[in-house]
Amino acid sequence: MTTTIRPLQPSHRAAWEPLWAGYQTFYDVAIxxxxxxxxxxxxxxxxxxxxxxxxxxxxxxxxxxVHAIFHRSTWLPKSTCYLQDLYVDDTQRGLGTGAALIDxxxxxxxxxxxxxxxxxxxxxxxxxxxxxxxxxDRSGFIQYRKAL
Length: 148
Description:
Elements: E1 4-7, H1 13-26, H2 33-43, E2 50-56, E3 62-71, E4 80-88, H3 97-111, E5 116-119, H4 126-135
């Protein structure tokens, strides 16, 4: 089976939503519908540097999603690409779909002239960490959050 990675279009929203919901369930979060609507709109607004890519199987079914955001950095002269969300349908895990989505974001980052691609995952996400440890370097930084 082959997987095709391509940018998500507004017409893909109905297929994207269950994967977005699965991502939230996996991380035990509930993102308000208003935020989901705003985010979906940003993906398709040329003034926003946010991108959504999808992995499609041989039957044209959306089986994985990845979201990327470009931003400036104080550490690099070039922009930086943050891979914020990555989710693959249970039926596709272990088949290379996650790696293909990350490679597609890396290609997108290179095309935009970014100097770095980075992402985070929860420390308990052992399955994903096996992939990440194989394809990237762990920075050693620990994330802290303060609600505002």
